[in-house]
Amino acid sequence: MLIPLLVLEFAYIYALYGRDFLPPMHANTTPQEMAAFVQHQQEMTRHALETMRRYWYLFYPLGLLFGLIIYALFAGMSAFAYRALVTSEATTAQPLLE
Asked: What sign does the CA torsion over 58, 60, 66, 69 have?
């Protein structure tokens, strides 16, 4: 269930930052290339913030919905894992009301 949400998040990042989010870098990066990379990242961040400001009415509800789904999935996984661990003890216990 989390893999489709991960794909959706990558699509969201691609839509927000564009295809030049991470420019190619190599092992022997010069200081000039690193400065150009930092400049590029700052421009991408500025562009993303402008886009989020322009379309805030879409980003806020979608972010809230996405956050709720993620929290629900993690809480559900934890609850089912706990129930799987504790089930054997709970079946042997006497019921409270008889």
From this structure: negative
* Cβ–Cβ < 8 Å for 59, 49: no
Local confidence band at 82 (pLDDT 50, 70, 90 cut-offs): confident
pTM of the model: 0.54
Distances (CA, A) of 70 to 6, 47, 54: 10, 26, 25
pLDDT exceeds 90 at position 64: yes
- List, in order, residues 6 or more apart from 4 with CB less than 8 Å away: none
Helical pair 2-17 and 56-92, crossing angle rounded to 10 deg: 160
